[in-house]
Design a protein that fits this description.
The protein is mostly helical and 506 residues long. It has a domain at 281-497: sialyltransferase cstii, chain A (Alpha-Beta Complex), CATH 3.90.1480. Helix content is 61%, strand content 5%. The protein contains 26 helices and seven strands. Strands 5-4-3-2-1-6-7 form a seven-stranded parallel β-sheet. Helix 21 links the parallel strand 4 (367-370) and strand 5 (388-390). Helix 3 packs antiparallel against helix 4, helix 5 packs antiparallel against helix 6 (95-108) and helix 10 packs antiparallel against helix 11 (189-209). Keywords: TPR repeat.
């Protein structure tokens, strides 16, 4: 029986309520309204897929699995839904069920097998959000796969193959974005950089032919413009979007993207003026906290630089994901012991929330910076006296990849500070100890971390800030940022090739 008009209107209202909660990162309420919309008749496969996302975020994995199952039963279910479902099953300890989902996806998408293989090996669905299109179906990909898998494959050969394919218009951005991740897995970072640059040009060409119609499309196009260093094109796309998609929500999004674009260019003073004109109370309070102060951000890498006293001499010291004061004290000589501001990442909060709360109860910070409003509300219930704010990085998608945490932290600190920010304990994983002991439990797939965090975007962003004098770096980081990006990419290839250690070359 078809729902009547009154029920359909109620379903539409519930759907819009769910969307509003999702934008606030309040996934518990979003999931409740998603369920209500589905019960009232808004029960498309997309609705079930989004319900699965919400339930995953609040760790209702059983409910999420049921929702994803409903979402992939539709005949037109895209590849990305299968990979998200399989990733969830792997994450919750059901590899056999995950394998069955992969098999089902292979049957429905026989030409997407390469993309599925990458997702299965990395146990992640992230790379598919942009790669579930025609890129996985290109026959050239199969030939490249065999060539790159050869025992004697060399990076120069890979770069030559990419150059010969670069002008083929039928090879879409999806093809090149898939290759970007694939080449990192093959330890060919310099070739991955070339693939990403070609992908950026494809995205920009498409955006110039058919300007972005949604905020998501705008973010992607502007991220590609930053990658290609075509900043004027990025500003033109933002201006056109604001003029043609003239709603209050879209104008606010265009303003946020402009702010990020200016920061990516290194035009920090202009970004600061734009931020001040926007007049957000939380931004003003953070600016007041930083005004006239010397500030240092200390990353988790052990680089061998003994800068403890120098770090602690700053007016404010920021750190990432602190949960144990003893670990900080153990590194006092290298990295100081003061902690005034702490930036907590989403994954860290998800896996260590109670440990973070216990630490802050014993060692209150002057300010903690969190990623999502829902986390802030949760922490405020337990620690009502602990000052907090939401991380103000505005880069929604880094063109496949999410940027290193330090990239977002520097966006936030430099944007609000009025003096150069000092940076310590960061080396892009080129050293032997990416994290100090106890900071991160478990090992890393280095190639995947490089691809997922978009190391080249982070490098270019930090280099522009350093060149413009907005950040001051310790000697290790300064030496890295003094290189051009091609040499930097070659160093990453070198590190990947040598089992996670960078071979010393003359």
């Amino acid at each position: 029986m078809e729902p009547d008009e009154k029920t359909l209107k109620a379903a539409a209202r519930a759907y819009q309520k769910a969307r509003r909660y999702e934008k606030r990162f309040d996934y518990a309420n979003a999931a409740e309204w998603r369920r209500r919309a589905i019960r009232l008749g808004h029960d498309s496969p997309d609705s079930y897929a989004q319900l699965g996302v919400c339930l995953t975020r609040i760790e209702d994995y059983k409910g999420a699995a049921e929702a994803y199952q409903r979402s992939i039963d539709a005949e037109d279910a895209p590849l990305a839904r299968f990979t998200a479902y399989a990733f969830l099953l792997r994450r919750t300890g059901e590899p056999e069920r995950a394998e069955r989902i992969y098999q089902r996806a292979w049957e429905r998408f026989p030409c997407g097998r390469l993309a599925l293989e990458l997702g299965r090996e990395t146990q992640s669905s992230d790379v598919f959000l942009m790669m579930a299109g025609d890129g996985a179906r290109a026959p050239e990909l199969e030939a490249l796969r065999h060539a790159l898998g050869a025992r004697d494959a060399r990076e120069g050969d890979a770069i030559g193959m990419l150059a010969r394919l670069a002008d083929r218009p039928e090879l879409s951005a999806y093809f090149w974005l898939y290759l970007y991740a694939r080449l990192f897995r093959e330890k060919f970072a310099a070739a991955a950089l070339l693939a990403k640059r070609i992908a950026a040009e494809h995205v920009l060409a498409a955006a110039e032919d058919a300007p972005p119609q949604s905020v998501e499309e705008l973010h992607l196009a502007v991220a590609a413009a930053c990658y290609a260093e075509r900043f004027d094109t990025g500003h033109e796309l933002v201006s056109r979007f604001a003029a043609e998609q003239a709603t209050d929500e879209n104008r606010a999004a265009a303003l946020a993207v402009t702010l990020d674009l200016l920061m990516s260019e290194g035009r920090v003073d202009e970004a600061r003026r734009l931020l001040a004109d926007r007049g957000e109370a939380g931004d003003a309070a953070f600016r007041d906290m930083l005004r006239g102060k010397s500030c240092a951000i200390v990353g988790p890498a052990v680089t061998g630089v003994s800068a403890g006293a120098e770090i602690d001499a700053h007016d404010l010291v920021a750190r990432t994901n602190v949960t144990d004061q003893a670990l900080i004290e153990n590194n006092r000589a290298l990295a100081g012991a003061r902690t005034d501001i702490i930036f907590y990442g989403t994954g860290y909060v998800r896996s260590r929330a109670q440990k973070i709360l216990d630490y802050l109860a014993a060692h209150p910070a002057k300010l903690i910076v969190l990623r999502h409003p829902s986390t802030r509300r949760r922490f405020a219930k337990s620690l009502p006296e602990q000052p907090s704010r939401i991380w103000a990085s505005l880069k929604k998608r880094d063109f496949i990849g999410h940027g290193f945490a330090l990239r977002h932290i520097l966006h936030d600190l430099v944007l609000h500070a009025d003096r150069p920010v000092s940076v310590y304990g960061a080396d892009f994983y080129l050293g032997d100890q990416p994290h100090y002991a106890g900071y991160f439990d478990g090992g890393m797939d280095l190639w995947f971390e490089y691809a997922r965090h978009d190391v080249f975007d982070t490098f270019m962003f930090m280099k522009r800030l350093a060149d413009a004098g907005h950040i001051k770096c310790d000697p290790v980081l300064q030496a890295i940022l003094s290189e051009d990006i091609e040499h930097f990419a070659s160093r990453i290839s070198n590190r990947l090739e040598n089992d996670g250690r960078e071979r010393k070359v003359a």
